[in-house]
Amino acid sequence: MKTILDEIVAQKRVEILEKQKTQSIESFRNSENFLLPVKSAKVSILDESKSGIIAEFKRKSPSKGFINKDANVKEVVSGYEKFGASVVSVLTDEQFFGGSFDDLNQAKEVLNIPVLRKDFIVDEFQVYETKAIGADLMLLIAECLTKDEVYHLSKTAKEIGLEVLLELHSEDQLEKVNEFIDLIGINNRNLKNFEVDIEKSKQILKQLPTDLIKVAESGISDPKTVKELRQAGFQAFLIGENFMKAENPCLAFEQFVKESK
Ligand SMILES: O=P(O)(O)OC[C@@H](O)[C@@H](O)c1c[nH]c2ccccc12
């Protein structure tokens, strides 16, 4: 059966082909951002003066539809940083998540903490693009990549200075972890059917390499859950919808951080 993830990836491949008509890896290499140093998410997450939260800017999602269509990106992400976010995640997929490069650029303009490009990266072209648009790290989703693809894409990312967050959803994807991965995310949300199961993160955690930063992703809406996951051994928490759906995402974030300490 064709899943939403298959649909998104198929669409990505169409977009990449379209972009390749006018852009090339070479053009990315020559871009202004390309030689700029990246900010380390690893370092920021381990900085104990911050919350450990990777706060996400997400306008919509395939599972929820519009969450906050017209949110002001600069306002929201500045609040995230001010109240202790370790990293900001910005969706750059347009069709399914309502994101854009412009959102990422605007976020970059006001932030001092690292910015994660949240998208569906399936081709080397997008890795170079990620650096060219000024992101500090990128997401790779194990579910839609072979072990070889994860290896190749993460190696390329490291070569150009980007950090890599590899997202896993099940134990059998652990074999895709390699030496170029900086952070491992366990997605509580099954991208095939959108079911959320917090216990999932805890189960897989026990089997993760100890030297990597471990991120619990998705479906977190209670500060107590963060405490619980931190106790279990997670160092970072990727949270989007819970803040974005609030009338004032910054305030919601501030409150959440206080209660999750
Ligand atoms: O909004 P939530 O439930 O707090 O989840 C954030 C983040 O984990 C989620 O947006 C996400 C996790 N993996 C992804 C892959 C692609 C797009 C989005 C995602």
UniProtKB/TrEMBL annotation:
In alphabetical order, the GO MF annotations are: indole-3-glycerol-phosphate synthase activity; phosphoribosylanthranilate isomerase activity
Question: What PANTHER family does the entry give?
Answer: INDOLE-3-GLYCEROL-PHOSPHATE SYNTHASE, TRYPTOPHAN BIOSYNTHESIS PROTEIN
- Domain named Indole-3-glycerol phosphate synthase is located at 5-251
Per the record, the GO terms for biological process are: L-tryptophan biosynthetic process
What EC number(s) does its UniProt record assign?
Answer: 4.1.1.48
Organism of derivation: Empedobacter tilapiae
Q: Looking at the Swiss-Prot or TrEMBL record, what is one Pfam family this protein matches? A: IGPS
The first-level EC class reads: lyase
Stated family: Belongs to the TrpC family.
Span-the-membrane segments of this chain are: none
Q: Which gene encodes it?
A: trpC
Provide the protein name: Indole-3-glycerol phosphate synthase
Pathway named in the protein's UniProt entry = Amino-acid biosynthesis; L-tryptophan biosynthesis; L-tryptophan from chorismate: step 4/5
For whether the record's keyword set contains tRNA-binding, the answer is: no
NCBIfam families from the entry?
PRK00278.2-4
